[in-house]
Every structure is written in structure tokens, then in C-alpha cells.
């Protein structure tokens, strides 16, 4: 195992900052996961003690943890939690995005491990998805689904930026740009002829009434 750590947060910060995790509600429905954990770094020696301590109240004393070595630069054989030893192991057969926690007296729990560098919005979606009672989705499937969702959001943002950059912003009667959502369709008829939304070279302006020729005015 490599010993060089790619830390995204100082070790003392991992020990002092609140632990970020979600747990499935107590239910008779058995799912593939028991929740999710969003560590602040890839330093297991710093991240595991706060997690195990936070889980002591809802789950009991955690005595052993297993991980996949692909996600952690270094896997210590044991760490200390509140003066007790927590044994750590690794298995290449284990889902890379999952953490398994064991207790001699209570049982086993599986947590999705959200990468430390994950954006908060994506992490929130993963936290919620991993805590659904009775879900049959594995950690790997949840991560793959989030990758698709993230790409869709980024693509939508790029399309929006391109649309705005090509002149898609609406212009108010006072000359100030407005977003498309700021101009309801019901208001278009009330705009003066100089206002409108421009896309490329096409201007959308409210229709104007052309006076009928003299003599053809309806009675």
C-alpha cells in the first residue's frame, strides 16, 4: 500500500468538524445500504475515529471496518476511538464506494462513501438516495446514477449559457437585460413595440394593430 496521502482537509479539521453522514430510518425493510458517509479527506486514520464515535449512539460500538484500497491512499491496520482500538481491513472484492462497519454485539452496516471532493448539491442527493429504506441500489449504482445526473445538470447549464451568450436574454422596456423566467408570456402583449426577447437575429415583439382602411371599419 502507498503511504502518500492526498488530503483535502487538515487532520485536525477532520477531528473537530461535524461528521457528515445519513442513516436509513429504522424499518423492517432491508436494503443494500444503511446510509452514506461524506468524509472531508482520504485520510482514514483521521476520518474513521470521528465517524465511529458519531455512530456509537445510534448503532453501538464499532469494532472493525473494511474498505476498498482503491479509494484510500493508505489503510492503517487499526485506529484509536475513545481509547479503544478499531481494527481496519481492506478487500479488493468489496465495492470501492462502500464502507463496511462491524460490531461484535450488534451486527453489520454498509455505508456509501461519497468522495470528499464532491459538490454539496451532489453529496446531498447521494445522502438522500443512500438512506432510502429497502433500496436495492448498490453503492456503485448510486455513484453511476449521480454521474449521469451531474452531466445532465452541467449540459443544461452550458446550453443556458450559450443561449444567453447568443442574445437570448430578454430586454426590459428600460433597456436592462432580464432572464427568461422574468418575462411571463401573459405580459408580452403589454410590452411596447421596442421591447422583446432576441434570439440570434430574430426579435420577438408584441403584435401591433394596423388601422383598417377608411370605409372598411366594422360597424
Polypeptide structure, described:
- It is a single chain.
- The chain is α+β, with helices and mostly antiparallel strands and 219 residues long.
- It is 29% helix and 20% strand.
- The protein has helices at residues 11-16, 44-59, 120-130, 139-168, and strands spanning 21-23, 35-37, 64-67, 78-81, 84-90, 98-102, 108-113, 170-171, 177-178, 196-199, 202-204.
- The strands form 2 sheets. The protein has a 7-stranded mixed β-sheet with strand order 1-2-7-6-3-5-4, with helices on both faces. The chain has a 4-stranded antiparallel β-sheet with strand order 9-8-10-11.
- Strand 8 (170-171) and strand 9 (177-178) form a beta hairpin.
- Helix 3 (120-130) packs antiparallel against helix 4 (139-168).
- The longest helix has 30 residues, at 139-168.
